[in-house]
Amino acid sequence: MMFPEFDPVAVQLGPLTIRWYGLMYLIGFAMAWWLGRRRAQRADAVINPQQMDDLLFYAAIGVIVGGRIGYVLFYSFDSWLSDPLRLLRVWEGGMSFHGGFLGVLVAMWWYGRRTDKRFFALTDFIAPLVPFGLLAGRFGNFLNGELWGAPGDVPWAMQLACSRHSVLCFDKLQLAPGTLLTPPLHPSQLYQAALEGVALFLLLWLFSARPRPMMAVSGLFLLGYGAFRFLVEFVRLPDAHIGYLAFDWVTMGQLLSAPMVLAGTVLLALAYRNKEFV
Fold first, then answer.
1. How many domains does the chain have?
2. CA distance 249 to 117
3. pTM of the model
4. Mean pLDDT throughout 46-67?
5. What's the rounded Cα separation, in Å, for the pair 135 and 24?
6. Given this model, what pLDDT does residue 275 score?
7. Which residues face 271 on adjacent strands?
8. Is the pLDDT of residue 85 over 80?
């Protein structure tokens, strides 16, 4: 299959340019807001529907600031040392889920301090709202033609034109000069959309449909996301300037996801040992 080469610009209104990737972020936040207001109507919800507006604002700041800082520190640290102002040039692209995740944790801690809400009560509440944002973000990656998987022979693998994806062809895949097309590549963005978006949402939404011990939903999110991301990394190409970290298969994504699996397992064990509810 040939990659259809979507135009990264969704809407052009004079000097105003709306890109698909930014639009996907907006869709993700909108879905989280809608789902959060629905879940906040429950009698055992930690916030009421009106408070969802403020909670989303804090979470959005955490995602954007944390995602940008995380990308620079985790995936582009050397270039940041030589050019510290790169951190501020968000128009150059680059966001990290793990950085955004840490940013949201800080935002929830801050929101909890200001509203006298318990930290894990808040993280349990927002955990089922996150996968829709991950789903939208991965579709944004696909539309942008980025974050491709390794070569594969599955029927849905896709080829890309090297004239439009020179970094992918000649830096990541190290193809010979003059090569016109990539070999068929796994669409790992769509794998992540299916696992971290659809599957993780269903798992968390159904699990949290009834009251659970505090920390249990947060623990399941960490365990589920970490495991899904770790698996997809086996067929995802690492960043060209980082490569594999060890054994010709360990990636930065796996290194950052493994602690999430461990932390999620610990939180689930503590939750069901203590059986403390909000």
1. 1
2. 42
3. 0.89
4. 93
5. 9
6. 81
7. none
8. no
